[in-house]
Amino acid sequence: MEYSGDEYDVIVVGAGIMGSSAAYQTAKRGQKTLLLEQFDFLHHRGSSHGESRTIRATYPEDYYTPLVLESYKLWQQAESEIGYNVYFKAHQLDMAPANDKVLHAVVESCRKNSVAFRVMNRDQLDQEFSGRVMIPEDWVGVVTEHGGVIKPTKAVSMFQTLALQNGAVLRDNMEVKGVERDRVRGGVWVCTANGERFWGKKCVVTVGAWTTKLVKTVGGVELPIQPLETTVCYWRIKEGHEGGFAIGGDFPTFASYGNPYIYGTPSLEYPGLIKVAVHGGYPCDPDKRPWGPGNPLAPLKEWIEGRFSGVVDSGGPVATQLCMYSMTPDEDFVIDFLGGEFGKDVVVGGGFSGHGFKMSPVVGRILADLALTGEAQGVELKHFRIARFQENPKGNAKHFL
User: Which residues cross the membrane (predicted)?
Assistant: First the structure.
């Protein structure tokens, strides 16, 4: 078989935030890198577009906090290389009934990982945020300094630009239909829908909501990653109160545990509007999206009316955006070798379950480590192995659920 010039050390399939971060990492290490994307770069059909994502270190699973703390440093390092900001600092507020198991696990995780936190009752929280956030009498809030907002599309563009500056080749509108083992000299062939073929020593697959489909085609492995269509909602802050909810002041990113799980960010992308949304969505086929109608609004309206003292208009969102989650049963990531005939030559990153974006710099670092050295430095990956679903279809057991 003849070999063309289309040969690489690493081929990354999927140019969302995880793939773009991984390509940046491999290119920065001097590896000849190819980044392939099935649609246009910076498209809106996946999980890496939009105007804001929260970043926080308060996780009930204590194995995420170290990843977030490393990601803060890696976000800032990439920003220093590109010359602009994608991360905007804020405090983080977590709130729930005082007996909520998830909130208790968050506190224990903070203690274990030496993350400073303050627990506040209703009156203390009222004083902390000057009456802008109200919680019921039997609720508590947990405040930490490790909050903030990431600009997603801008962040993806940053990693792609840095990958390019470090010598990576970027190709969009290149849908990958298969990955094949090269039985002559090792490595893999990556085959696209338009008939082009690229050879790589290693391949990293980060295709978001398309992970289950592609991994089954390539390796015959059934991954329980369910795409969900989710809706992001923006609500109007009543006139005269806009400044109190704006980024750059003391208003936090926030999460409210329970059913539904509600999260939000200070006003940033749209002046006078605040993002408040439900974590979750509806199962969908990423190639046959319903594009709506979105999550029920009644619980959100009730929550906003109860928490923001009537200062945010709860009548309905004034703007919405659709996005996708790639959900695993346990909401933990998949970061592992595909195995089988591919051994350690194909690495899969997927199932980021609506909370992975904040950790994309460290996930990119881990994926690059696995592809280039066969192991990830300083990270325990047992929670992210594919094999966990063979042992238990629901994945990792969570003591707080």
Answer: none
* Alpha-carbon torsion (205, 17, 395, 327), positive or negative: negative
What does CATH list as the number for 88-149+226-327?
3.30.9.10
Closest CA to 316 of 282, 283, 273: 273
Compute φ and ψ for 352, nearest 5 degrees: -80, -5
**Homologous superfamily, domain 3-48+153-223+329-391:** FAD/NAD(P)-binding domain (3.50.50.60)
Signed CA dihedral, 233, 75, 108, 381: sign only: positive
Q: Which two tokens stand for residue 370?
A: 């696995």
pLDDT tens readout for residues 39-56: 999 999 999 999 999 999
Residue range 155-175, pLDDT digits in tens: 999 999 999 999 999 999 999
Provide CATH 3.50.50.60 ranges for the chain.
Answer: 3-48+153-223+329-391
Q: Give residue 101's pLDDT.
A: 97
In this prediction, residue 3 carries a pLDDT of 47
